[in-house]
Amino acid sequence: MKSADTEPGRGNVNRGCEPATFACGRCGQFFAWEDRLMLADLAVCDACSDSFGLCVDCNAWTLLSELDENSCTPCRRAALPIHAYGYKPEPVFFGTGSKLFLGLELELNLEDRSCDLPALAGACLQILPYCYAKKDRSIRYGFELVSHPATLNYHRAAWVQALPAWNRIRQTHRFCCAGQTGMHVHLSKAFFSAAELASLVYFCSQPTNRRFLATIAQRPLGHWARSEAVGIKQALSGEYDRYRVLNCNPAATVELRLFNGSDRWEDILKNLEFAAGIAHWIKRADRRTGADYRYFLEWLLGDPQPSADYACLSAFVSQHLDAL
Q1: Cβ contacts of residue 282 below 8 Å, gap of 6+?
Q2: Under a CB-based contact definition with an 8 Å cutoff, are residues 262 and 218 in contact?
Q3: HEC states along 132-201?
Q4: How far apart are the C-alpha atoms of 71 and 56, rounded to whole Å?
Q5: Does 15 score more than 50 pLDDT?
Q6: What is the rounded average pLDDT of the residues 6-20?
Q7: Is 245 in contact with 204 (CB distance < 8 Å)?
Q8: What pLDDT score was predicted for residue 260?
Q9: Rounded distance between C-alpha atoms, residue 164 and residue 140, angstroms
Q10: For residue 248, which of 183, 192, 294 has the smallest C-alpha distance?
Q11: Would you give the end-to-end CA distance of the chain in angstroms?
Q12: How do strand 142-147 and strand 52-54 relate by DSSP bridges?
């Protein structure tokens, strides 16, 4: 091993008035004080110093048995693909041709608790590189798949490309999302004027729209996404209860929280289309002043239909008209 003076964090400096011997922090045997080697705060003998190596990430002395590819355990954990709940990277915006950006939050829960979660998250991020994974306190065993903000068309193209591999992941790892997890979609606040944002709050809190919203969500509106009438000024204050169908508290987005969790691409796309569709409908200059969901359906299913962008949502609504 190199001498103590040639590697950082090590030293065998002999000062005056020091004890004649020291106990090695590794083997416990006593040696001459001047022969000690300091590995960070641990004094060891020359023989035991060969059991340590430098972590290439944090430059800390670590037992060789705890190094993997020259990286210590804490650094390897920090590099795992599943980030902490509070992880919020700088947003990267994907897609062009629209001023509306959507952020997907998909909670994924697993039946098999022996599943290697970091490996599974890594596989998901490999096929959806515009996403990241983080922990969520509401998920029993799994993680939340979170996208950077992207246009609806970018989301669709990314998932279509990833779909064959995604379906293989679904077949190998049985997600149990329905009824146990949720899906949230963030919409960029800058897309709306103050009046349009107020209209969106009003739409999402109207009692006459609750059955429609629950049908779209594919679950009852409850604790995590309530739909009681609320004062618009209060809802837009940024300090209101976030467990609403529409959460306006985030600084740069509003969050639709109503959707049932699902690993089915058809459900994910339908929810993204609903978020984009309701946002564009709210902005229409010729939109009727009423906030009843039937005006939205007239627009969505009208002739001509607003756009092929909402084909999955339109098909879902057409199949469930009797429930509305």
Answers
A1: 192, 196, 199, 200, 203
A2: yes
A3: EEECCCCCCCEEEEEECCECHHHHHHHHHHHHHHHHHHHHHCCECCCCCCEEEEEEEHHHCCHHHHHHHH
A4: 6
A5: no
A6: 49
A7: yes
A8: 94
A9: 27
A10: 192
A11: 76
A12: unpaired
Quick check: helix, strand or coil at residue 290?
Answer: coil
pLDDT top residue among 41 and 46: 46
Contacts of 281 (CB under 8 A, 6+ apart): 287, 296, 299, 300, 306
Q: For residue 50, give Cα distances in angstroms to 16, 42, 65, 75, 270.
A: 27, 14, 11, 21, 59
Q: How far apart are the C-alpha atoms of 98 and 149, rounded to whole Å?
A: 12
| Calpha distance 44→179 (Å, rounded) | 56
Q: Which residue has the tokens 């997907």?
A: 104
Residue length, the chain? 324
The answer to whether the peptide bond before residue 129 is cis (omega within 30 degrees of 0) is: no
Q: Which amino acid is at 212?
A: F
Please, where in the chain does CATH 3.30.590.20 lie?
Answer: 83-323
CB distance 290 to 299 below 8 Å: no
In a 3-state reduction of DSSP, which class is residue 26?
coil
254-305 pLDDT per residue, tens: 999 999 999 999 999 999 999 999 999 999 866 666 688 999 998 998 877 7
Residue-level pLDDT at 3: 38
The pLDDT of residue 13:
41
CATH top-level class of 83-323: alpha beta
Average pLDDT over residues 94-107: 96
For the question of whether the overall pTM of this predicted structure is more than 0.85, the answer is: no
Residue 13, CA distances (Å) to 9, 18, 40, 141 in order: 12, 11, 13, 51
> Cα separation of 47 and 57, whole Å?
25
Query: 101 CB contacts (<8 Å, ≥6 apart)?
Result: 93, 95, 149, 150, 151, 187, 188, 191
Amino acid letter at 265?
W
